[in-house]
Amino acid sequence: MADSEPRKIRNICILAHVDHGKTTLADHLIASSGGGLLHPKLAGRLRFMDYLDEEQRRAITMKSSSIALRFNDHSINLIDSPGHMDFCSEVSTAARLSDGALVLVDAVEGVHIQTHAVLRQAWIEKVSPCLVLNKIDRLITELKLTPMEAYTRLLRIVREVNGIMSAYKSEKYLSEVDSILASRPSSGEVGEESGVEFVEDDEEDTFQPQKGNVVFACALDGWGFSVHDFAEFYASKLGASAAALRKALWGPWYYDATSKMIVGKKGMGGGSKARPMFVQLVLKELWQVYQAVETDGKKGLLEKVIKLFNLNVPPRELQNKDPKVVLQAVMSRWLPLSNAILSMVVKCMPDPITAQAFRISRLLPKREVLNNGVDSNALAEAELVRKSVEACDSRPEAPCVVFVSKMFAVPVKMLPQRGPNGEVLNNFADEGEDGASGECFLAFARIFSGVLKAGQRIFVLSALYDPLKGESMQKHIQAVELQSLYLMMGQGLKFVPAAHAGNVVAIKGLSHHILKSATLSSTKNCWPFSSMVFQVAPTLRVAIEPSDPADMVALMKGLKLLNRADPFVEVTVSARGEHVLAAAGEVHLERCIKDLKDRFARVSLEVSPPLVSYKETIEGEVSNTLENLKSLTGSSDYVEKTTPNGRCVVRVQVMKLPPSLTKVLDESSDLLGDIIGDKAGHANRSLETQISNVAEDENPVESLKKRIMDAVESDILSGNENDKEHAEKCKRKWLKLLKRIWSLGPHLIGPNIVFTPDPEGMSTDGFILIHGASHISEKLGFADDSGPCATADRPSSEVTQALYFEGERLESSVVSGFQLASAAGPLCDEPMWGLAFIVEAYISPLTAHSDESEISHQHSEQYGIFTGQVMTTVKDACRAAVLQKKPRLVEAMYFGELNTPTEYLGPMYAVLARRRARVLKEEMQEGSPLFTVHAYVPVSESFGFADELRRWTSGAASALLVLSHWEALPEDPFFVPKTEEEIEEFGDGSSVLHNTARKLIDNVRRRKGLPVEEKVVQHATKQRTLARKV
Length: 1030
Fold this sequence. Notes:
There is one protein chain. This protein is an alpha+beta fold. It folds into six domains: 1-179 and 206-222 and 336-360, Rossmann fold (3-Layer(aba) Sandwich), CATH 3.40.50.300; 250-335, Yeast translation eEF2 (G' domain) (Alpha-Beta Complex), CATH 3.90.1430.10; 375-421 and 435-521, Beta Barrel (Elongation Factor Tu (Ef-tu), domain 3); 540-611, Alpha-Beta Plaits; 617-683 and 695-845 and 865-885, Ribosomal Protein S5, domain 2 (2-Layer Sandwich); 891-1008, Alpha-Beta Plaits (2-Layer Sandwich), CATH 3.30.70. The protein is 38% helix and 20% strand. The strands form seven sheets. It has an eight-stranded antiparallel beta sheet with strand order 14-13-19-10-11-18-15-16. A seven-stranded mixed beta sheet has the order 2-3-1-4-5-6-7, sandwiched between helices. Helix 22 (669-676) runs antiparallel to helix 23 (680-690). GO terms for molecular function: GTP binding; GTPase activity; ribosome binding; translation elongation factor activity. One of its GO terms (biological process) is cytosolic ribosome assembly.
């Protein structure tokens, strides 16, 4: 491995929807090129890469794992990845370390929700994809299609996958709520340059069988082919050139037997029976072999095929009673799967040198240096390192740069006991607490530049490290000595003393220095790699505690190990002191709990019911935006509160933000944190992480400002399509408001806004208005530094001037009160969502008295510090304003894709109805008895959904859920019947059952220990005691 030439290396991953055949395909590649690790007869049944017990039991892949293969003097690092949505973080780690991706699609099921996700992941990471249409045999044996029908189906799938890729190329991200995958919206309109690029790309599809980057396969039976394989065979038979046949064997090309010419549709002279060459010369032969095996009377046809293609099949296998064995024997020798796949990998996928030059803008985006006072030597060295990564420099003197995409745990007993020369290795050195648990943590890494050696001293850089800031960055960099390097062979590990750039390795000795991912560099002057993008967020949260309180220390150690071993799990401590585990879904959570019990903590656990997150908002429609704005800027309809000492009066008005603006603020939280926190050096990287299609030199602040404006405009236009004048008025008012953003919340980066009071507000009756400052508007570029809130024309009297100074000091208290209110709403202490507040705080001078300092001291003793009073009053006023404006609960929604046979549609709809699901559409899959149903399912109702669905449909239906969006419940949680019709329908109010919104609110309040209005005793009678005298 140390001597492998970078041009002879290929790093590939296998990506697909769940159960589309990734691990089975990997089995066949390992059997043929894995150096005897797997017998060919076990390929497809053993599932070599699924070596965890849980993976074998559930028959799904749960982690990405690597294996090194050899093919025609090429070294191929193959990474198998999961297809289940719960483990999509593993797909991200696999895609980052790869240069090419094999995208599998089931020929019967077609493109599914996870296919969209993995194609998007490949596009973001700039990985070169190749397409494998798997399970072709199902078209023959299950669906009984004719060769022409099968060709039409395959053509449709290839076009559909190309359509997805062209959508990404043309910057049209699938960001609408009804799209298959909820992805982040693009940065706006397509620029002129990208428009030209789109036209060019549109002319040439990504996947073209005639180019050789599409393989048709049946992984279970071990056969597969590309158009090139048949072109070379038929070149001599038909007397045509192989190059011409490659182009003609896919698409509307026909072979005219009379003239022995390849012609188009028109050249066939209207013969409706004419079949394309792909059908006539390729599919027809396949169908004949399958029919010959299935029908005993057609054995002669099978012998004819064997003779035609010069196959060497042992007679013993041909005489087998099982037709499946005969079929595998013939097909795997005629069209060996591994040859078709690996030759495509070598020809169509880039080597590390080519790939890194293409991917450098994603891995290490260029950063503009804003400061002139930076060390020029450090900057020059950082540029040199970037160029080394771009060129994949594998010389020993080149700077060594490595990216660790995840940490994974292996039992210490699985580590190699001896080195390549027979020396005994010390596997227990420096393991600490990991060694005590019997687990060793290895880093799953790829070398992008230089040579990595065991025992080498290297720097670990976190994602926030900046080489130009010197001493202030010490907490983001650590020096560490590597212990061992291993070549990954599935579950096995092979010790290697050194590895060159372009290779994928496992590194021992970093367990105490890396939590999830990091960049390793031989020099301090290196930019860290850009962060990886995950498709979903960990939304399923449970509280865990040990059954025996004495085991708490073991549980905390186990949680630390689990947090390091899983790239996606989140471990936190809640405000109530609970240990909360956040996972991507039920399957992911079950695996985490099992790992905690059996591997990391080894204690018995108590797991709470899932803790579902909600948001709180108010009722409001997009159509009446102008009315909302008028009510917000008018003087009426506000909530007024006074501090306990009577010195400050707070008036709060609230309005609902447009939905698109709320979504943009929510999705840009990381970028907002960088901009507001003055982390200009990292703003570029945050934007690169969130919006992969932004040009390198585009200003992130300008981009975000444009997205905010686009969001406001789109909502205004959607509500006022016919009235342009009305829309213009709304837009002008919004522009004025956006110049007055005082703060965002909660945590200064949330989807709620507090605006500064109207600058025309004057002091009244001795009260002075706290003006605030539009800092956020200035940082986002909506307002100049000299905003309207600058204090001007201050009265000259000393008392009033002192009040103004006190008002400036109290600005932070007003903002803190807003932050507290937006983090815990009035319904059930959940964060607020999409609300805009205007807070007017008036302060008055102290009442005249002989000793003002004494009075001030008495006031502070009696009511507490004045700043605290203002903070509490603002918080209470904001919460009261929300309660006054018809509050609503907002819940997270899953987008669900369900597949079921026709006879089980009824039970499936019954399950959806019980789960409060909303069906979007249903369609029958062409050429199969399956229905595909798309629906939105509330996250709170999704627990146990898949199990219940399988139970009610006898295991015939399957479901896959992915987090889609937040949606307000239309029900009023405080509904009381008032009109005659309502009283007639719901009763007089005393017997009205709580609606869904109220039940959800009460459940959350009960869990948080908040007071709940409920009858403790529903029906009671006085107990009568009857004395029995004997």
